[in-house]
Amino acid sequence: MKNRLEKGEETQIRLFGSQMKGFSKIDTIHKWLVDNCFGDYYTRKSLNDNDREMITFCYLASQGGVEPQLLADSKANIGLGNDKEFLTKVVLQNEPFLGYPRSLNAIRIINEADKAING
């Protein structure tokens, strides 16, 4: 509890890049995201980064309307080694739960993330 903001920021920077430094200082909701989401949950030892990011990707894909966050987490996944092919298989496996519109959106975002990272 004493260092969750610090650990949350370290985790965000590790996954999303150095541009996340100071993210918690933007406003209250950004502080909560760093402190709670990344400081409380992402620092737990039960899942590795690859599994946690893949699960986060699935949550976001199922929500719809969160394309900026899905793009950021797609890039984080690819950066960790959960590549375009892997993420596409995840979407296809979950299509019965996501539905075609959200699956198509997720695949579009995966392709956009892959292009941004791998050219």
Automatic annotation (TrEMBL):
Q: Which InterPro entries match?
A: 4CMD/NDH-1_regulator, AhpD-like
Query: Which SUPFAM superfamilies does its entry note?
Result: AhpD-like
Instruction: Locate the transmembrane regions by residue number.
Output: none
Gene3D superfamilies in UniProt: AhpD-like
Domain of life from the UniProt record: Bacteria
| The protein's name in its UniProt record | Carboxymuconolactone decarboxylase family protein
- Identify the species of origin: Lactobacillus amylolyticus DSM 11664
